[in-house]
Design a protein that fits this description.
Radius of gyration of chain A: 21 Å
Number of helices of chain A: 8
Keywords (chains A, B, C, D, E, F): Manganese, Metal-binding
GO molecular function (chains A, B, C, D, E, F): metal ion binding
CATH architecture of the largest domain in chain A: Up-down Bundle
CATH topology of the largest domain in chain A: Ferritin
Strand order of the largest sheet of chain A: 2-3
Largest sheet of chain A: 2 strands, parallel
Structural class of chain A: mainly alpha
Oligomer: homohexamer
Family (chains A, B, C, D, E, F): Belongs to the manganese catalase family.
Helix content of chain A: 40-55%
InterPro entries (chains A, B, C, D, E, F): Ferritin-like, Ferritin-like_SF, Mn_catalase, Mn_catalase_dom
Protein name (chains A, B, C, D, E, F): Manganese catalase family protein
Chain lengths: 304, 304, 304, 304, 304, 304
């Protein structure tokens, strides 16, 4: 079972302008083969399919707890996309005249379907608008092989995060990347250590791949300063603490990052307020004439 | 953000025998167009894309909290699939000789790929092995339209659950269906009420669709007896309690179900122990010679 | 069986200029999940799969006759796309030199494949170039559920038509939208009434969804003035007249539209001349040197 | 525009038993790459995209009229599928107890999804359950190339029809194949002649491909006896008669078929009654308790 | 079995500038339905599936040897794409600051995923970024039908090559098209002759389709001058020489091309040097800090 | 460029009986995500996209030469599939009566489409009939990351080969697996060594994954005895010999395999005769009445 907290894992700055093509680029990190939908579903299905979990409990705990974190990553990227696609909160809801082609610009953005389907919301598709699909999930039940996959997946995801980051100039999307680069590195590192425990191969010496330190990413620094790169969370399930047998026991931060012991932390990061996405009546979000709906909702609330 | 609890939403009885074709049928409820991956991702993306959430808070809370429950539904179906595909826990791990075609039977099951990819684990694919994909997600940002979609989705999902149920004779899969039919009915009902509040149309009078009462499903009875059909949960986020403006306020259980007030419950159901899936060395799960891995894991655990 | 009439359901004004990106946007209404290929094939397959049609004949007649109309909608959107992609009829066929990159601009349009495959013709793909596929068809055989789907589909299609309309400034595409918004509203209304007859739920009170009246769409007015919003056609099969049991019997136009009785009309609308698409030799349509072909065809015709 | 006639192009004998796997094989001829959805949509889109139609009118008429016929082919195969999947009309509606796994057998059929989605109805998918998709449509606007494609498509479709035929023992599916083999041969022949007129190449000498005469197919004989192999129909649009410039003018039946002049016939074949598909309450078609629906429909009809 | 020669089939001029959209257009000829991945895999699978090859040996030799050539076509287009996407070889590797959005322009190119996945490399996708897939392969085992398919495929591929050519102004991509138009014409011609031998139908009289002579393509002239249009190669397997029974025996070049006998040539064309693609550290190709890797590789080489 | 040799990499024993479901299982190793189409295309595209090849030449040589070998693997699996699907060479061509449902059994095989499309030939699809697609190719241009992918891909492929092997009882398919397990292990080993040279991480210590020695596979023994597990081939391109800097230099066979030095061998393995697939007239392969075709071909050959 899963619980929900109405907070975002990181605080995203407001975008400076609407930039649907930048939002589309960020979609790669959501619905691309190496996006968060992939990391989420790989670990989620592996955790459901886990064999002999009592006998290899720390490994089960690792995959299971990271699954919970990935849900928040999907949420974070989705929020970044909606913010970039919609731009700064408007002073007022420009209803205007829908017959004057108010969204003419949308024919020239890279993924017109994003506007036509979602009105600027996030969808499980990649940067070209191709839908995420279930063939992106790998779950054989062989522990070493599944962990090797996860290690590779995180390195591949790191590459995609870096390249998306390099295309974005707006602070919202860059912050998404800066945060995810830190947390993705933690996951790559943790799978490397898991493989090392099982096979003796020092996979962590291959990190970071690609070989660029996070010190080169300004948006990652505050997370490094906090020590985020040394932490795994239990996400509410104390029984997952035993993943410290992998992530702990004297294992250290990667050489290029601020030094220190790796540690398992109970609970979850504090998180930040989720930005409120204001609707656009002309795009029928919440609706063309939302006042009535707002009024109904207010009355419903008052009656409670 | 999401938290995780290492429990299943319902207690699943052990299967009587391995039945990969029955497991494949159950895959429809996991990765089919009307499976739990679809309900999960529809509500999850809608909750991320929600507009004006402060102005229509009870509706946001409804969609957001149900998202959390759907994660557990995905988990429940996945567990049902792995149990059915693998059958009763074997007395011992029959290693045998991999050169004697020990899995010859797998060429004749309906989805050979399920064995070849996942060794009998669950995957995000449907009953024919087609992968779930992102076109199954609908999220326009228009509140009435998105809720109408959700109402339709739950009715369509109910149809698929009923038909899958009718194909299964083993208690494991039937229990999955029995539980999900109750909870899916709650979700259909809640979206009906949400639409009624917004539009005045008494959608709940169309329920149940298909028009068969849950009293006809023996496996649903204990959940009805507990009152599960009258409850929505906050799944850990108290701010979602205000969905009681929709699910509450004197609204009643559907006529065919045990009577009573609808109510929002803090937290989550107690849940049940997750079945431990025993590996099969011959299928390389956990691995061909897992003893070494078990030994490593035991030592790691001991050192903590 | 189906018959064909060499006319278009509505008269489309000539485009002012070629606008391949606007044509691509219009593709959403042809090959998108909520495009006319979807409405057509849903109703077509439902009509083929209909159960107990003699016992529920008016419902069968409704779905079957609308199928015939949808064929004309596919035709209408396809014509709009080819007109927008090709622009005004050229004064002469500019053959020019194919070695001077005469279609250089095509590398920068949103869907280069549309030019490369179809030379500016319409294809069963969406606004991002993704192909229409059979998972978009829903046909369970459960009457209430299939009708509920159809009602939802038409509301979703209305949203997509509105958003596409808002992106188009050229009269051709806008006329396509203006006409289809009227006819799509009829279909939504008819499925609402069908559901009301079967379940007692006043679904039509949810219309229009999104909640914007057609009076806001200038291109829709002439169709409303004609009373198109109050009419269903038999499309040549008189046995379908009994759908008047649903669309008739005193049922009225929706409140926001011009008032009047709903009525079933024998036959079909008058229709309009189909625009003749002139080929472009440089794009090999009809061919690079079409004169010979024209000559052959003229002689063949003369010999008849 | 298209009109509809509530008849089937050929009379299908009742099936002797329900045979879902045979129905699945027949799906190849509906939603496979060389199925009727492909022939229909190729000619339909080509007719919409046709260039310079006034200058090459007989060719336009040919493609346009065949489009109308293909709609009826889709209908014919769909009916064959539903009949085979459902079997003979039952004496009574066995409601029985849905909790006793009444559809247990459905887990072992080749396409369980066909039952789970469509309750034994036809869907736009192939014999393996893969959805038909828009990449199967070829429409370049180059007349010779599009006709060459159509000639190839019909030859490929003939191969698939022959192979499906060879797998079927029940008369229903065999009759579908027998009829379509005759009509598909007409279409192949007509595209051959169209190419010959344009290029001088005697394509019809390549027919039949595969090189087996229809005289070998017992189910085709009555259609040959009627002269169906020598006829193209106008399908209600007299302006299409000028395709006689291609199909006519002394052109003869293929050598292996009964001899005679090719001719264009106004209108359409007489057609046959469409089989009424009886619902199965246990499969929720029309619904679990359809009597109420039947009663409502009867009263609606009576009031007219 | 296949062997490899580290050369390209044709010499490609250096591009004048990076042009990712032109590279995307060229992708149509690689991963599109009528691209080189399709010609390659169609002939490859047909050659693997060939029936009675000893009895129809020249036809087997034809398909088998062309398969080998198509591998080089895939290579040629891939090289053209990488060259166009990356532009002229830079004077130095601009490492710069990855935090300054060095690839901001990539959000506005047509296929952002091409950069994000491949850093400007070629991928098996089409001009819209849709992946090539196995449904593009046709291999029935019927000799006439498979050859007819191949003839059609080459004509369709010729259309796509011509249209892509017309969109390109840079010499690199144009050279790719100029070369492939010559060789593709050879393949179309050879399948035409194969069909003629088997059926007596003079298919080659339909060539060229589209009906434009290669004399109109400046980039094709040097290959025509060499006589490339009259040659098929054995690609290293002398047993394939017997395809001269089809491509030879007095058969002549097409009328629009330089005249002469068709001939089978042992071996392969001389080929040209493959352009060395220089990495971009900022795009992590070969890596962010590749010097270390270069150093390792140099030392490894030295030790040999 | 690539050359072709008309031989198979290994000698396949004749099948004992036709077993279409076993053939379908073997399709997983051809068109599945971890099948030979994937290994081939991954290495092929990586070799085309290679950066700075002169600076990292041994790595380029490794990937490029293995590409050539993979072509032969695709060929080997394809041959295994056709042999299993068609069974032993029949004594005579049973033409019989196609109207007596001669292929009735094909409705019950797992992938009816395999028969309907390919008449028992191999296709680029997986064990469930899903088409191979281009998203299975990974080629970022980052050397370490691409090699890591390749290492993971080979380990994943090994798992799939092992599981397919365990389902097959017929010698043909088992031999395919036995051979590929040896060669795939070589490739995994070589990528491990490449990574070790670049990063210092001893990846080869993770081999074999899954952790079962080839000594357990009887069909692999003769290849081990020959030393195949210690050899990489240049496949005709001597410039690739420098991959000995990776595969050589004293590196040894894996501990579980027969000991010895790793070595680069010029050329290619001897290979074996390709089985001649006899057609089935009733399935229209080569055709329904192939004698005429055989006669034509014989005469053509005689005239040379």
């Amino acid at each position: 079972m899963f619980m929900r907290i109405d907070k975002l894992q990181a605080n995203l700055p407001k975008p400076k302008k609407a930039d649907p093509n930048a939002a589309a680029a960020l979609q790669e990190l959501l619905g691309g083969k190496f996006g968060e939908m992939s990391t989420l579903n790989n670990y989620m299905f592996q955790s459901f399919n886990f064999r002999n979990k009592s006998k290899v409990k720390p490994f089960y705990s690792l995959v299971s707890s990271i699954t919970a974190e990935e849900l928040g990553h999907v949420e974070l990227v989705a929020n970044g996309i909606t913010m970039l696609a919609n731009g700064p909160t408007p002073d007022e809801d420009h209803k205007g005249d829908i017959s004057s082609a108010p969204f003419k610009d949308m024919t020239d953005i890279r993924s017109a379907a994003s506007f036509l389907h979602a009105g600027g919301g996030a969808l499980p598709v990649d940067s070209n608008g191709l839908p995420w699909n279930g063939t992106f999930v790998f779950s054989t039940g062989n522990l070493v092989l599944d962990l090797l996959h996860n290690f590779f997946l995180e390195c591949g995801a790191r590459m995609h995060k870096l390249r998306v980051y390099e295309t974005l100039s707006d602070p919202t999307g860059r912050e998404v990347c800066g945060y995810l680069l830190v947390r993705g590195s933690v996951h790559a590192h943790s799978y490397a250590l898991a493989l090392k425990k099982l096979t003796g191969v020092e996979m962590e010496k291959m990190l970071p791949t690609p070989n660029i330190d996070l010190s080169k990413i300004p948006e990652s620094q505050k997370y490094l300063d906090e020590g985020s790169h040394r932490r795994l969370y239990t996400w509410g399930e104390e029984t997952y603490r035993d993943m410290a047998a992998i992530w702990g026991g004297g294992e250290q931060a990667l050489p290029g990052d601020p030094p220190g012991d790796l540690e398992v932390v109970s609970g979850h990061p504090d998180g930040a307020k989720i930005d409120e996405l204001v609707g656009a009546s002309a795009a029928f979000t919440t609706d063309y004439a939302p006042e009535e709906i707002f009024d109904i909702a207010a009355k419903l609330h008052a009656k409670m």
